[in-house]
Amino acid sequence: MQADRIFVNARLATMAPGLPGLGVIEPGMVAEAGGRITYAGPMQKIEAPEIVDCAGRWITPGLIDCHTHAVYAGDRAAEFELRLQGASYTQIAAAGGGIASTVKATRAARDPALAAQALPRVSTLVGEGVTTIEIKSGYGLSLESELRLLRAIRKFGRIWPLDVAATFLGAHALPPEFVEDRAGYIDLICRQMIPQIAEQNLADAVDGFCESLAFSPDEIAQVFTAAAAHGLRVKLHADQLSNLGGAALAARFDALSADHLEYTDAAGAAAMAQSGTVAVMLPGAFYTLRERQAPPIAAFRAHNVPMAVATDMNPGTSPLSSLLLAMNMAATLFQMTVEECLLGVTRHAATALGRSDIGTLAPGQKCHLAIWNVERLAELVYRMGYNPLFERIWSRV
Ligand code: DI6
Ligand code: FE
C-alpha cells in the first residue's frame, strides 16, 4: 500500500458506525492520498513520503458545526443588557428588536464588511479543529438580500479553509415590509426565493423557524412543500420555546434535522426516529436565554434518534463561537455523555447535513482530521475555555 501521508502512533476515535462507542483503535494510524483517507486502523506497514508521528495523541474526524448563523452584521450587545435588566427575548422581538435589528444591519452592510465580521467568528471554530460548518441565511429576508447572503456563503466556501454547507432560512422572521401580509411573504419564499435558489444552486437545504414569534406549522409546511418540489432537503428550528409539534412536522417532511427541541414530546421523538431525522442540540441558546426545560434526551435515546451538538452561533440567542464549549454545555446542562457529545460533533453532525463523506475515519472519507493534545477524550468536553488542538488537517477535495 502506498499513500501521500501517514499519521502513525496515534489513538483513533474513528466514530465508525460498525464499531461500538467511539470506534476506538489504539494504537492506530491513518493513511491519506489525494485528500482522502485510504486506511484508518491498527498500525501496519504503509509507505509514504510524509510521516507524521502523533506520539500517542488522539485523532478524531475534523469537527462539524452543523447549525450556525455565522454571517450577519452588527451585534446585539445592547439587547443583552436589556435582557439582564429583565426584558425577555420575546418582548424585545415584539418591540422591533431581536432578529429584525440584525436584518437591518445586515441589509445595510456591504459584502466586504459581512466577510470581515464573520471571519473572526469562523476562525475561532477553525482554531478548534472544525473542518465543516453549516451557515444559514435568514438576516436578509428579501429576495435580493437572501440571494446575496447565500452567494456570500457560497463564496466563503470557496475561499475559507473549511467545507461550508449553505442553508436557506428565509422563514426566519417576518420582514418589516410584510407585517400586514404574512401570506404574501410565504408566497415570496415559495414562488420566488426557493425556485431561484434551487435553480442557481445557492443552498444545500432549506430551514425555518417554527415558533409563535416566527412562523406557524402551516406556514412552514408550505415552505417545506416548495423546497421538496425543488429537490431541496429541509431542517427546522423546532419546539424551542413552546411545543407547536415542530419535531413531528419536520419528520413528516423527512427533514435532515430538527434543532433545539426543548419542548418536544415523546411522540415527536418517535416521529423523528421513523424519518431518521437528527436531533440537533443547541445548548448555547438554552444557556443564553436561561431556559429551564431541557430537551427530552431520554426519549431520543429510547427511540435511537441520533443527536448532534452545534453552536447555533447567532447574535441574539447564542453568541457562541466555540464548539468545544457547546459540547461542555450539552454535557453539563443536558446530561449528554462524552460519547454522545463527540458523536454529535462528528458522525451525527454529518448526517444532520446529509453528508456521508465526512464525520468518520474510514477509507474513502475526506481526510479531515483533528489531532488532540489530550490523554483522555473526555478532556475535549470537560474543560471550559481551553483548546487542546495539536493540529488540524483539511484540504479541498
Ligand atoms: N436560532 C434562531 O434562528 C433564532 N433562535 C435560534 O436559536 C434567533 C436568532 C436571533 O435572535 O438572531
Ligand atoms: Fe438557529
How would you describe this structure to a colleague?
- The chain is α/β, with parallel strands linked by helices and 397 residues long.
- It is built from 15 helices and 15 strands.
- The protein has helices at residues 77-84, 89-94, 99-108, 111-126, 143-159, 182-199, 217-229, 246-252, 266-275, 283-288, 297-302, 323-334, 338-344, 347-352, 379-382, and strands spanning 5-13, 24-33, 36-42, 50-53, 58-61, 63-65, 130-136, 163-171, 205-210, 233-238, 257-260, 278-281, 307-309, 369-372, 389-393.
- The strands form 2 sheets. Strands 6-7-8-9-10-11-12-13 form an 8-stranded parallel β-sheet. Strands 1, 2, 3, 4, 5, 14 and 15 form a 7-stranded mixed β-sheet that branches.
- It starts with a strand and ends with a strand.
- 53% of the residues are buried.
- The model has no long low-confidence stretch (mean pLDDT 97).
- The chain binds 3-[(4S)-2,5-dioxoimidazolidin-4-yl]propanoic acid (DI6) and fe (iii) ion (FE).
- Fe (iii) ion (FE) binds next to loops.
Q: Can you tell me the residue ranges where pLDDT is under 50 for at least 5 consecutive residues?
A: none
Give the class from helix and strand content and strand pairing. alpha/beta
What proportion of the residues is helical, as a percent range? 25-40%
Terminus-to-terminus distance: 21 Å
Report strand order across the widest sheet.
6-7-8-9-10-11-12-13
Name every ligand kind in the structure: 3-[(4S)-2,5-dioxoimidazolidin-4-yl]propanoic acid, fe (iii) ion
User: DSSP helix count?
Assistant: 15
How much is the radius of gyration in Å? 21 Å
- Overall morphology: globular
Largest sheet: 8 strands, parallel
